[in-house]
Amino acid sequence: MTHLQLLDEAVARHNDAEWSRQALELIRNDQRRSADTHLLRLDLPVLDGIDVYLKDESTHPTGSLKHRLARSLFLYGICNGRIRHDTPIVEASSGSTAISEAYFARLLGLPFHAVMSASTSAEKIAEIERRHGTCHLIADGSGIYAAAEKLAADLKGVYVDQFTYAERATDWRGNNNIAESIFEQMSREPHPVPTWIVMSAGTGGTTATLGRYIRYMRHATRLCVADPEYSAFFEAFSKGNLQATCDRGSRIEGIGRPRVEPSFMPNMIDRMMRVPDAQSLAGMRVLSRLLGRKVGGSTGTNFVALCILTSRMKAEGRKGSLVSLICDGGERYGHTYYNDDWIAAQGLDLAPHERALEAFLQDGEAII
Ligand SMILES: *Cc1c(COP(=O)(O)O)cnc(C)c1O
Predict the structure, then answer these.
(1) Distance, CA 321 to ligand 1 centroid (Å)?
(2) What is the DSSP string of 328-348?
(3) Ligand 1, closest atom to CA 253?
(4) What is the crossing angle of helices 96-108 and 16-33, to 10°?
(5) Rounded to an integer, what distance in angstroms lies between the CA atom of residue 219 and that of residue 223?
(6) pLDDT digit string, tens, across residues 112-133
(7) Final residue of a domain: which of 166, 198, 227?
(8) What does the alpha-carbon distance between residue 306 and residue 197 come to, in Å, rounded to a whole number?
(9) 54 domain-assigned
(10) For residue 127, what is the domain's CATH number?
(11) Which residues are annotated as modified residue N6-(pyridoxal phosphate)lysine in the UniProt record (predicted)?
């Protein structure tokens, strides 16, 4: 009998213990069929002794780093007895998490509902629907949390709540989490312990895993978080204000939040940088040309902070390595970030930022 048949049989017998055993087995088998993601080394001879790496999270089956999170959240929900044989799954999302959760819900035969801001890219909505998820679009992006909670109550389902549980659903000490994987893949490089790891925050979950792992392993690596223009996280870090809010939704999908999410943990961050959106999208385009394929907007934010830290190390005559992430690919943003009309309508001018980044990457000219 296949596992899906065993799952059906457990459902027929309404045996939740048996159902959860089979569900965990299905997720484990899915993970066994998956490979780890690449750690790409950028070819930048001008940096001379500073090595820059990007962990390519766009190659997961659902196209972003949220594949890891969705798997962890399902394992957490099943092992806690919250997700059962007939549980409708509900999530508030800017899109990427919902795509990955729709994948795991489909794997287990559970109905899935995504509650998202109406500004979510059409490509992401189509991806969720292709995976048999239902999308509920809310005009005011800051209303997604309450709407998801209400929908879950109405459906007698589970509101997965990535923004609360991302930091605790992941095994941060090991279990091939993203931090352990990065340090393992770096182990035979010229500078195996990175001077900096750079990330941006959506839930803050990846940042928490990286920061905890660095401390746990007693590495000298420092953690820099890049925040987009419209986000409450920067103020939470710089002023210690966990009540900070931002009344405009972030333009960079996946990162920057209107409130300080419970999964965002400022204490393990060494530095935060606020990256203007025009610079993020310029970084996205410059990096896409360097790699020969398109990356997403948050990867641009990461890349700008990575270049600034690298530029400072170079100016100080230091050697070492830096690591950041490709969070997702650019194919989800064809109507927005890669559309010049959209960029112009936002009132953004990318050209000066593109020139500055390219002058740094080609000629080593410092960027400020
Ligand atoms: C979620 C997300 C991030 C941020 O990761 P967190 O672990 O949630 O902080 C960055 N980029 C994209 C595209 C994302 O979907």
Answers:
(1) 23
(2) BBGGGGTTTTT-HHHHHHTT-
(3) 13
(4) 120
(5) 11
(6) 999 999 988 899 999 999 999 9
(7) 166
(8) 8
(9) yes
(10) 3.40.50.1100
(11) 66
Decide if pLDDT at 12 tops 80.
Answer: no
Do 268 and 202 belong together in one domain?
Answer: yes
| Partner residues linked to 272 by β-bridges | 225
Is the Cβ atom of 88 under 6 angstroms away from ligand 1? no
Which residue is it, tokens 């700008």?
304
264 and 130 in a common domain: no
Q: Give the β-pairing of 39-41 and 50-56.
A: antiparallel
* Ligand 1 atom at minimum distance from 264 CA: 9
Burial 194-229 (b: 16+ CB within 10 A, else e): bbbbbbbbbbbbbbbbbbbbbeeeeeebbbbbbbbb
- Pocket test residue of 65, 67, 72, 177 for ligand 1, highest count of atoms within 8 A of CB: 65
CB atoms within 10 A of CB 110: 21
Q: Is there a single domain that holds both residue 250 and residue 347?
A: yes
Confidence bin at 6 (pLDDT 50/70/90): confident
The structure tokens listed for 142 are 């800051």
User: Percentage of the chain surpassing pLDDT 70?
Assistant: 100
Q: Is the pLDDT reported for residue 140 higher than 90?
A: no
Q: How many domains does the chain have?
A: 2
Residue 339 is part of which domain span? 33-59+172-363
Domain boundary among 166, 199, 229: 166
Q: Mark 176-192 as b/e (b = at least 16 C-beta within 10 Å).
A: ebbbbbbbebbeeeeee
**pLDDT tens digits for 191-221?**
999 999 999 999 999 999 999 999 999 999 9
Cβ 324 under 6 angstroms from ligand 1: no
Count each helix (H run) and each strand (E run) in the chain, helices first. Answer: 14, 10
| Distance from the Cα of residue 308 to its chain's centroid | 21
As a whole number of angstroms, the distance between CA 151 and CA 160 comes to 12
From the CA of 254, how far away is ligand 1's center (Å)? 5
